[in-house]
Specification:
The chain has 371 residues and is an alpha+beta fold. The chain has 4 domains: 91 residues, DnaJ domain (Helix Hairpins, Orthogonal Bundle), CATH 1.10.287.110; 79 residues, Urease metallochaperone UreE, N-terminal domain (HSP40/DNAj peptide-binding domain, Sandwich); 38 residues, no CATH class; 117 residues, Sandwich (HSP40/DNAj peptide-binding domain), CATH 2.60.260. 24% of the residues lie in helices and 27% in strands. It contains 9 helices and 15 strands. The strands form 6 sheets. Strands 10-11-15-14 form a 4-stranded mixed β-sheet. A 3-stranded mixed β-sheet has the order 1-9-8. The protein has a two-stranded antiparallel sheet with strand order 2-7. Strand 10 and strand 11 form a beta hairpin. The chain is elongated and about 120 Å long. It starts with a helix and ends with a helix.
Length: 371
């Protein structure tokens, strides 16, 4: 392990000011811009200063540790790299940054797509209209008028940055700054395309067929890779995300993997029993109404519900039967109902609190039917 005190040329009891003064003196002497070929020596000086200028690291070093946690020989150069860039800019090697590319990836886009409930259940293809950035057809995304091209910047000579000399305590420092003449691109479009204004892209509307998977629901997002905005300079397109919104249906509602609907039958059909037809997404279904069926009974049609996304199986269609009591009666109908009430000893009925008494079997059956 290197002797950091010897590297800086100070005693082990040197004060922080003495350490700082010794470091600055050596940094002026060994800086690569002043004395090329001494990068390794300068690195050792910088690491020594990093450790001895920090009380905790210095204390650990004096006790026999590395001070930096891994030591100079352990490959921990993070602190040195930060220190080097802080004082001299550009990192080790003094290299200048590369010019920025005009060709960049486009932004992602998010749009809402409304579909009907049947499409959500079975899936399907929807054609959507989108307005987004497309590559300019006049200049093929280059940004320059056809027949011309971008010119090398006369200020930075194509590097995209300019060097600026700054006088500091360590002497003259060289820093790289983005060229304000070309914006860091290294080239300038002096004769831009009249169609896109030099951006390399234009706004356009296009139709896009989208495959909607079976089982989607509100809020589900579909990713269409490479269908977003084309990037500046004709760069690759971003992605397009479609957020699904399912429109309300006049008959059916969705309940997770199940569909629900309400079926209203006359009081006489519920009392005497009947069979009624129900139009579903899977065609006409016959619903059996047993004699004496009570309002609120749920009929389950297995496998006629919503498709389970990414599984393919389907839930059930749950039909709630509502018994309709007639609101208007003519004299003949009233007479017949009065005779029925008399025959059933219900002329002066007693109201029941809670559910009517049922057999244990019928209660279990209705409980499972409602699931």
């Amino acid at each position: 392990m290197s002797d950091h005190y010897a590297t800086l040329g100070v005693e082990r009891d040197a004060t922080p000011d003495e350490i700082k003064k010794a470091y600055r003196k050596l940094a002026r002497k060994l800086h690569p811009d002043v004395n090329p070929g001494h990068e390794t020596e300068f690195k050792e000086v910088a690491v020594a200063y990093e450790i001895l200028s920090d009380p905790n690291k210095r204390r650990n070093y004096d006790l026999g540790g590395s001070g930096s946690g891994q030591g100079f020989g352990g490959g921990d150069f993070g602190g040195f790299s930060d220190l080097f860039e802080t004082f001299f800019g550009g990192g080790m090697g003094g290299g200048r940054p590369q010019p920025a590319s005009r060709r960049r990836r486009g932004k992602d886009a998010l749009i809402e797509v409304e579909i009907d409930l049947e499409t959500a259940v079975f899936g399907g293809t929807e054609t959507i209209e989108i307005v987004t950035a497309e590559a300019c057809g006049t200049c093929d995304g280059e940004g320059a008028r056809p027949g011309t091209s971008a010119e090398t910047c006369s200020l930075c000579h194509g590097t995209g940055s300019i060097q600026q000399m700054t006088r500091t305590l360590l002497g003259q420092m060289v820093t790289n700054q983005t060229c304000n003449n070309c914006g860091g691109y290294g080239t300038r479009i002096t004769d831009p395309c009249t169609n896109c204004g030099g951006d390399g892209r234009v706004r356009a509307e296009r139709s896009l067929p989208v495959r909607v998977p079976a089982g989607v629901s509100d809020g589900v997002r579909i990713k269409l890779a490479g269908q977003g905005e084309v990037g500046p300079g004709g760069g690759p397109a971003g992605d397009l995300y479609l957020e699904i919104s399912v429109a309300d249906h006049p008959v059916f509602t969705r309940d997770g993997d199940h569909l629900r609907c309400t079926l209203t039958v006359p009081m006489t059909a519920a009392a005497l029993g009947s069979a009624v037809r129900l139009e579903t997404f899977d065609g006409t279904q016959t619903i059996e109404i047993e004699a004496g069926l009570q309002s609120g009974t749920v009929k389950r049609l297995a496998g006629l519900g919503a498709t389970r996304l990414r599984h393919g199986s389907r839930g059930d269609l749950l039909v709630t039967v509502v018994v309709q009591t007639p609101a208007k009666l003519d004299s003949r109908q009233r007479e017949l109902l009065e005779q029925l009430a008399e025959a059933r000893d219900e002329v002066e009925p007693e109201a029941l609190v809670g559910e009517p008494s049922k057999s244990r079997f019928s209660r279990i059956r209705e409980r499972f039917a409602g699931r």
